[in-house]
Amino acid sequence: MLDIGYALSRRFPDPPQLDYSRADVRALRHDLFCGDVYLADTKADRELSTAWGWVPVLDFAWALCDIVETLDQDPLGSRASRPQYAELDFTESSDRMLFTRRFGWVDIEADWMRAEDPPLTFSHTELRREARDFLQDLLADLTDLHDSLADNPAIWTLQSRYPRVPPA
After folding, report:
1. Within a domain: 47
2. What pTM, to 2 d.p., does this model score?
3. Would 168 be classed as within a structural domain?
4. pLDDT at 119
């Protein structure tokens, strides 16, 4: 089972005087809400996590949802035997997370993994559902911290673009 989580950094606090209702997409994606993220396979007790403290957490959630949709471009969907690839690069470093979908399964690797470690593997359906839940939960947490964020049109667009996926 997939678990996606985050922790906001105390080293990079968000500016309290900022009007979050007017923050532009660049600020939302790259300048605010820094911390660390993880993807965990709870059955295998393995995880991919950052430990840098500066990862833009909202950008990670947003990009992860974009990647899940990118991996679903083949008209054959889960019957597609040809691998589909996507990567998530971290702005402040050369590290990347690499995603490979074949049939209905997605392998997730990272540049900082040891070569002998196998990738984390999840069904595409589970990855989509968990990525969207993570995004929606994160947005709820962030709007609890910064009330005016709920009035930001970019957040409205993001919430409507990636709604929760109902359980199967």
Report:
1. yes
2. 0.95
3. no
4. 97
